[in-house]
Each structure stands twice: as structure tokens, then as C-alpha cells.
Amino acid sequence: MVIMDPDDPPDVAAGDLALLIGARGRAALPLIRAAGRAKAAAVAVKESSQTLEQAATDAGVALLEVRPEVRWGHLESLAKGVLTTTTDDGEVLGDLFALAQTIATLTGGIVSIEDTASRVLAYSRSSDEVDELRRLSILGRQGPEPYLKMLREWGVYNLLRSGEEVVRIDERPELGIRRRIAVGIHAGRQPLGTIWVQEGDQPLAEQAERALLGAARVTAPHLIQQRNQPTSRFRENLLAALLTGRMDAATVAGQIGADPKKPAAVVVFAVRSAEGDRSEHELRRAEMTGLISVHAAAYRRSALVSESGGRTYVLLPDLAPNAQLLSLTREIVTTARRHLHTAVQAAVGSTVSTLDDARISRQEAERVLDAMARDLDVEVATLADVRSQVLVSEILALLQDNPRIRDPRIDALDPELAKSLLAYLDALGDVRAAADKLHVHPNTLRYRLKRIDLDLDDPLVRLIAQLQLRMR
């Protein structure tokens, strides 16, 4: 963002937002043309006119009209706020307050996020009783100095600045301080801030400290963004580029501090909510992505998380040979189901030998998740767990999409006959077992089978019928 003044030479570059201060009416024309020649993104003026609009159109630059009562200083402040929380591709960074609420959900506590000057940046909502330290911190948007002094004397801040270790602060009833845990937020060795979790009416969750460690790593890009440095969206784009082949593994590994020659795996998650409000579904998916990011970062610092096509993808690099990915994935799904009150499914791709093969792991996980969405009532699976179901599901999808390779006689069966025939075929021709499953008399089933115009003595007819009926 630049300020253009009629008395000064134009100093504007491509992509700039230019504020035309002190230039109204025809006096703004030369500045608009200069901004257009420099390929500025937009110019802001007070008291626009048809002449200025035409000049901006001719110059190929967007024209923003600012109301006369708006102070330029206020507009500049607002615009800077937008620019410093937006990535290069126009994506707005996630809300710190939403992140604080996610951390509160995972830890079972009352959360506040502070910068290195102990200024409160965001905090979670809570129906629990808050202690004096939190109350004064939020009301004053900064911790009260007497309390901060005590924390310094106890060595709390030294521990938070020195590394990622979760610090425990015991309850001090005489000071109005409840038990809490805290962790420093870092970019390398550079401290960025602190996450505080106060214990409420109930004890903190069993996995609170682990969740807090992951939360610190997820929060770091948000705080870095406030210093005009790369954002978490950049990491999401890295994963998308790797999985689609637009970026090589060595480049991605260099950006996230991973070893491209070590094993890696991809896990894919999906929310299986019932039909309803689309916005509610999107909100749940966003909450799930935040929850997954915290868990993944706690498991691997170099983990990448990205959303695509309604699914959440997680890349876990630098894996040990005995990495317990299934247990991690089940923990995430269980936590998501408990806190989001909706069904979540996850497919774990195979562990590949190097980061170069991450796309293979992703494709495998997608195949499993596709099958789970169609006809598998499971929450977490690998291809080895459900290989037969995945293969049959993919065959059925081909049948569904290609009517010419289906038998029209089977398509024409009424629902009662179709259900009876499938039960008979699934029972390997055992009429009594199939009748029991259908809750009918065996003679009733025999009568229904005689009505079907198919040679059921032919194994190929039975094969096609069974597949086609499963598709129905």
C-alpha cells in the first residue's frame, strides 16, 4: 500500500494499492494514469466522478471511492490489517479465536493466546469459572503486572521461551490462580508468543499436553503472518503441489524441514454428515481440519494438512519403520466424532519409502475412502484391511457408469425379486439360509426364484447378477 500525493513524484509499483490523498476531481487524473502505467492493483479516491471512472478504465486500474467523512488514517489502518492477514493468493488467514476454541475443545480447558509482550490476541469462550488472572488479562487485553512479575520470578517465562516443553503452573488459591498449563509458540528459536490453558470446573483432558504441543506448532504460522512472513496457507499449497505433481519432493522437503529420502504416508479424512444446512457442514469440516492440524503437528513437526474436494489430506513425512499411523488416525477420528457430533471416516495410505512416492499413498487412501463412502460401515481403514471391498466397490462404480455392460434383465427385476435373488446368491444357493435372512418360508423363496428369467445354473450369469444386484 502506497500513498500518492499530487506534490510528490509517483512512487507506485505493480500490485500496489494507491491512496490518492489530497487529490480530488481533475487533480487526481494524472495520478490515476500513473498508477495504471505502473500496473497498480487499485487506486482509492474521495469524490469520484464519471471522468475519473473513465480514466481508471482507460488506465486498466480498479477505482475505489472513499466516502468524504472517512479519515485517510483510519482507512490506511484497516487496509493494512487486511493486507497483513492475507496471503499472496488472496486467502485470508484463519481466525485466531476459532483456533483458541479448537484448542479448548481438545484440552478441556480455558484458552488464551498471547504474544511475546503478554498481550492477549485471542481466547476461547467458556461457561466455566475463570480465575482472576484470566479475567484481568482479557479485560485489560494484557496480563496484570503483579501476576506477570510472579510468573517471571517462578521462571515460567524462561521455560516458555527456551523451547517447546509444556510448563505446568500449580494452583495458588491465595492468589486467585487456578492450575494451568502453557507452551511457548516458536518459529525455530524465535519466540512468538504463548498459549495458556486454565483448568476449569473439570480436570484437563488426558491428552491435553500433547494437544497443546501440536496447537503451538499450528498457531505459529498465524503469528508469523502478523509479522508479514509466510502463512499456513503456504504450507497447504505445498501439500497440494506435491500431491498433484506440480512440485518435486526435494523442494517441499526443504520448505518444511523434512528428509525427502525417509518414509512418508498420506491419511485422508472426510465428514459424513447427514443432509442438511451446507454452511453447517462446511463449518464442521473447517473445525475438523483445525483439529487434525493440531494432532498432526504434535505427531510430526513437518506434517502438512490441506483441504481439497471436501476432504482433508494429511502428509506425515520422516516416518519410522514402526510408525503407529492407525492408532493416531483412530485417535483423531474418535476426538472429531466426540466434539463435532458427526460421523468422520479416515483412510490411511500405505507408508511409501520416500516423499517422492507420496502420491501413491494418497491415491491408495482415496480408493479406500471412496469405498468407505459407498458401502463400508467403518471409521478407519487401510487397503490391506478392506482390499476385497475396495475392488468390488470400484467394479460396481464401473457398472453404475456404464449401462452397456449390464444385463437389462437384472435391471428390470422388481425390488422384491432383486432382494430375494441377491440373498440366494450370497448364501451360495442355500435356499433355507437365504429364506431365514429374508424372514420368509423356503417355498416362498423358491417360487420367487422360478419367476426370474435367468439361468442360475450358469456361473457367469450368477457372477454378473450378484455384482449388478450389489450395485442396486
Automatic annotation (TrEMBL):
Source taxon at top rank: Bacteria
Q: Where is the PucR C-terminal helix-turn-helix domain?
A: 417-470
InterPro entries the record matches? CdaR-like_regulators, CdaR_GGDEF, PucR_C-HTH_dom, PucR_C-HTH_sf
* CdaR GGDEF-like domain span: 248-371
Q: Name one Pfam family in it.
A: GGDEF_2
Indicate the segments annotated as coiled coil, or none if absent.
Answer: none
Any stretches that span the bilayer, and where are they?
Answer: none
Family of the protein in this entry: Belongs to the CdaR family.
| Protein name from the UniProt record | Transcriptional regulator
